[in-house]
Amino acid sequence: MKALITGASSGIGADIARVLVSEGYEVILVARRKTKLDKLAKELGDKAKVIVMDISSTYNCMQLYNEVKKEKIDILINNAGFGLFGEFNDISIDKELDMIDLNIKGMHTLTKLFLKDFKKRDQGYILNVASAAGFMPGPLMSAYYASKSYVLNLSMGIYQELKQENSNVSISVLCPGPVETEFNKTAGVSFKAKPLDSMIVAKYAVKKMFKNKLIIIPGLTMKFALFFTRFVPRKLLLKIVYHIQTKKVN
């Protein structure tokens, strides 16, 4: 079997590649940073192939699909994404739109293109990487939280459509809390609570994906925290999240 992994140059994406290769799968690694991709591919050996591409461009997503569609992709891992921290009014609109293009449009485009093929074959796995942030609004990271809510809700909607059709295609959405990756540096935040190790998250995600788990939440702490939010009034939750966010400033 063969997997296509976006955002594969570091963090969760790179570790998912390591997990899949260790289990005998071939991987196609997609990201913008050629040096890091080549280093990872060298580590993984002949089961890894590199495609250097910026998938924040819809055109590039189409090009990527056309480049690999004859290779019979069995697993799509939509991991590429980044976050921005700050007051909504202060963050550059260009940076926000770049984030929306990658976190939402790139994921949406690749999901649709590969899902069509998976449904024709009536097999395949899609893992969309969202975040625990997708379950709630996030003052000081408003656009990022909203983008991950899109990933979460799109994935859930597709899941039910597939269930209604008795399809053998599986779609899952990974919703981790803080993870020790380059995301933190890019977003300009640091977490006071100890982040999860990305390899632990990757192993858990792959295991649950193959068990057709819809929503994958690594770690008991985050499971409990998200369960707790169901019982908190919305305005109080906003105050709590805002307070937590202010402690993330580097």
Commentary on this structure:
This protein is of the alpha/beta class. The chain has one domain (2-246): 3-Layer(aba) Sandwich (Rossmann fold), CATH 3.40.50. The chain has helices at residues 11-22, 34-44, 58-68, 93-121, 142-164, 183-187, 198-210, 220-229, 234-246, and strands at 2-6, 26-31, 48-52, 75-78, 125-129, 170-174, 215-216. It has a seven-stranded parallel beta sheet, with helices on both faces. Strand 4 (75-78), helix 4 (93-121) and strand 5 (125-129) form a beta-alpha-beta unit. The longest helix has 29 residues, at 93-121. The chain is globular and about 50 Å long.
Brief rundown of the structure:
The chain is an alpha/beta fold. It has a single domain, classed as 3-Layer(aba) Sandwich (Rossmann fold).
Radius of gyration: 18 Å
Amino- and carboxy-terminal Cα gap: 42 Å
Proportion of beta-strand residues: 5-15%
Give start-end ranges of low-pLDDT stretches.
none
Q: Give the beta-strand count.
A: 7
Compute the number of structural domains.
Answer: 1
